[in-house]
Amino acid sequence: MNIKDAAADFLACRRIAVTGVSRTPGSHGANVVYDRLMERGYDAVAINPMTTEIGGRPAYPDLRSVPGGVEAVVIGTAPRHAMGTMREAVELDVTKVWLHRSIDGGSVDDDAVTFGREHGVVVIDGGCPLMFDPAADGAHKAMCAVLKLVGRVPRKVS
């Protein structure tokens, strides 16, 4: 499917976990995604094994620990952690995973992408949920157009 349809399907989920949300956000990509999803009315869930709270809301060490589970996951950690999260998503029957990538290498790990797809997960391997409506803003949309040209946002998702 094309990226626009895959993003719409992903963002139709209302309870989305975001891994890599930091206690000291700065401009950390996972925090930006987490905060925007919250602003747009999503039930965003912070995943960080080093704390139990971020911004006054509960944080969980892993996907298994989230009461009631989640519908989808944004991986915002270093690529070396992506496979562990992907395996956990598969075990928990989470079928939508987005590996965040902006200008840098982001969170994309090719082995995690392959593993997820082999196990029926729709994996978006690049770009950012904030580049697509209803979570988007003008700056992210412009960035999306540029990053598509250089291959940082996939055109097709499987």
UniProtKB/TrEMBL annotation:
InterPro entries: CoA-bd, NAD(P)-bd_dom_sf. Pfam families: CoA_binding_2. It comes from the Bacteria. Residues 10-104 form the CoA-binding domain. SMART domains: CoA_binding. PANTHER family: COA-BINDING DOMAIN-CONTAINING PROTEIN (PTHR33303:SF2), CYTOPLASMIC PROTEIN-RELATED (PTHR33303). This is CoA-binding protein.
